[in-house]
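This is your field. Have a critical look at both lines of this record:
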Amino acid sequence: VKDDVVNSTSAPVTLYPFALISRHGTPHIEGFYILHEGMIGVLGDQGLKEETYKAIEDKKVATYNVTNGWLGITDKYWATTLLPDTNAKLQASFRFNQTGTQKTYQADYLLDPQTVQPGATGTANARLFAGAKETPLVDAYDKQLNLNRFELLIDWGWFYFITKPMFWAIDWLFRLVGNFGIAILLVTVMIKAIFFPLANKSYASMAKMKMVQPEMMALKERFPDDKMKQQQEMMALYKREKINPVAGCLPILIQIPVFFALYKVLFVTIEMRHAPFFGWIKDLSAPDPTNLFNLFGLIPFDPTQLPVVGHFLVLGVWPIIMGITMWVQMKLNPAPPD
């Protein structure tokens, strides 16, 4: 956006270039801790700044004097941001105002003043991004305009160094196979293959623990009132059988950030919105539409519409399959010692 101001007076005029975006009314938000919705910006050396709607309501205003920044308002899949010149010194602000019942959330910036001499023209340029947070698009803006980490408009989270490469892996596989569901399955298989050596050690450790369960129970019966002696004998048993009691947990802990990053990718990226899989799965970003409580559609009613209890009556095919696999995995684990 280009603004020209012609000074037709006989005296110099001082102008303050200014830009703002505002949202009227509090929007419906997802409300998940892994997703930021609200005010956002990368503001010079102060880095990423995020304010939820509730936080800015409490603060009323948050102001930063910086160089090389951008700011705006973001939803899960959409955003509107102001993109001032990267060399500009700006006073960037997040604001909240309420008139009656009308709430207004605003992101704005004020640049250094310009003096326009009589007969001269003052020019101010402002750039605006408004649209879907598609990863290639956001990255293209970031690179072409030399912005300050505009890629953080998408909430990649703490494990950014895992999350974003994982998105590119899924996206590359999607372009190869033509189905995001298949791409996600392939990435999951690849991750499992990478972690197989660790997982194999974990399963081996759990198998050994299961084998010595009778001996552990015998030790408890032998020293029922002496917990210290129990522990000493168990440690001796572990040493004799070459068992590390924490070996089964460590590989699982290492995998947690990776699978959390995978979940994060699936949750925050718009690319999988309305993407179909197969059969009844028409939208990978939506909950499983099937429901056990109407026999998966055989009974013509929607149990989720029942008052009070309706939102508890949601149990589709995929959650059932997941529950079965978790039960099988749990049965493979040894019973925990007292």
User: Anything to note?
Assistant: The chain has a mean pLDDT of 86. The chain has three domains: 2-155, 157-272, 287-338. The first helix runs from residue 53 to 59.
